[in-house]
């Protein structure tokens, strides 16, 4: 077993890098989940349990003693047991319902057989069914109740639950490894940093741990997307690059909006012109971003159903269109691959989502702690010249009584390179 | 310099082990400061500054955005400067006024010359002049305002202040070492664990980091005191050991209380009998505990003025009394060395301290987070057979609306030995 372990872990790493959900930073995650094909898949054979958590682990005000029920899933079918010191694999929940998360993390229920591991999925506070204050309505009512939705409390939840669980099953000698992808991958990394006495290791995939407080260049995000598409096809990149100007020209013409709406098969009623500009550009930008994020060598169903190598496929129809050869038709072909892989959508729906009354949890985290750094766009970027990352969270969306603390992540978890 | 550094650090360690203030866990610290001879000593040449801190670093409720002024002392006279990457030595404040702390930490103002270090003393929130809510009266009013007095917030204070300070003096490359003794030594240790990206090292002296959540044997405290006195003189140990029974016998006699009060030169008015038992025993117990804690080879002035080798001196007068040879006279001689080294006190004052209206900060910490584990007493202990560590904090002293969280320290900072 000794020599097998590292090899298997590398395999696990590779698997997870290629199959994990990319729950990214706030606005980059503002992507409609058109389909959740996996949300009803039940991997493994887990039990649903609940753990009583303190609302506030760090303070001792009367309010901090309020408790809530945190949901977690536990699968012990392959566990070798406490006496053998068999490991406990803890998948840290993100902003999704934890059963959905478990449904998309099939590899957890593969590696548990290899390592004779107990598998635990812990739901993140304020998401899924792990809602404080008895109801989502109250929990999400205002900053006073939402104030406890943050990473440090969520990490302490995991530490408390895992410590208690190990005691309860008398498995103090069972090593714990935490797993996570996307936001949960960040959390897994931070968990290992802050609770090395609880977790022997962490496996974080697709975790943008440096995407805070200007630790990386503001150009890095647009650079990476650009580079990815350029590396697939230089001419594809050029077509997309020049398309923004062409579309803007059309939009300025009389009846240009209707013309473009028809070219792009936008569902009626068509948005008015200014709105159309932002929404159409947003539609294309998201396709570029998420096809790159989900550029797997096999079919995937994470954000939307996609063919293998989606960027390659999108560039193929841009470079070698089967029908009309104008720019709009080429781009439309690419959008069809990204948004309409199943071929079931007759048109693109650009009407706004119904606005929910309260602030969403993920937006709240972006307003306070997980503050997205500014994004800039070089001249050779594939995005439009005035690209302002329009999906970026606006501070005007945030409650008035909270201010962002953009340095809190780096103060608490580090990351800025320094000799100390 | 390269090879000198480790050697000097060992010296520093030794110095600090022998000279630091023993601010111990709650009840063990319930020792009246008869004298503060050092409280007006000003070491080094520091400036007093203030830093605006968030009351709550981890939550985002409107209340958490409340700020307070944290006081810190900064001495840059020996600092080699940012360009040379000269270090920053941060002494973490404990429950004392930070100027008093700086006054008793002379070695900080010695080693700064050797290392060309900046010296910073940071006052602990809710102590000294670093009081939230504008006044101590409001800050200490109830659990709602006191709830933010805890170690995790205090550690985040240090991280935030140091990170900001380094930016302000453009000293990002200057390594930071945190220092502390007693409670502050625990804090220095935890700071290095939780903020390794801020502090390159920590020097903790006399820091009982394992004295939580039954990590060490409940007998260890009484065992260590017993062993220390026994190692000085077996007969001294035996005299003290049998004295408790003798005093109890006298107390049961008619007029025994008055007799004992006179023998021990208790100031009038004498306490009534039951009270006398507890107070007299407490007086002796504290002398045994703190003479062991302050058993330095030179004169010290930390808890009370003491001669060099106080335990040896106390045992000398117990073993070889100059005057009367009865047990009470022997013990009185020892008490005189501990409490009356200056010879200025004609009698021992056992009347109660005036009770302050609010709870003290240190008691609050003992009620909530720094929960003292139970103390047990073996048959061969030097303490009385029914020794219940009477100075131990009683839960009835704690506010009714907070409950202790005895596992919070080990969950947050680890310590229980385990293979993970």
List the keywords.
alpha/beta, Peptidase_S28 (chains A, B), Four Helix Bundle (Hemerythrin (Met), subunit A), hydrolase (chains A, B), 2 domains, glycoprotein (chains A, B), 420 residues, Rossmann fold, protease (chains A, B), 6-stranded mixed beta sheet, 40% helix, homodimer, disordered N terminus
Largest two-chain interface: A-B, 56 and 56 residues
CATH class descriptor name of the largest domain in chain A:
Alpha Beta
Number of discrete helical segments of chain A? 15
Radius of gyration of chain A: 23 Å
Helical proportion of chain A, percent range: 25-40%
Number of strands of chain A: 6
Give the end-to-end Cα distance of chain A, rounded to a whole number of Å.
39 Å
CATH superfamily of the largest domain in chain A: Alpha/Beta hydrolase fold, catalytic domain
Strand order of the largest sheet of chain A: 1-2-4-3-5-6
- Quaternary structure classification: homodimer
Strand content of chain A: 5-15%
Tally the structural domains of chain A: 2
Protein name (chains A, B): Serine carboxypeptidase S28 family protein
InterPro entries (chains A, B): AB_hydrolase_fold, Peptidase_S28, Ser_carbopepase_S28_SKS
Pfam families (chains A, B): Peptidase_S28
GO biological process, one term (chains A, B): proteolysis
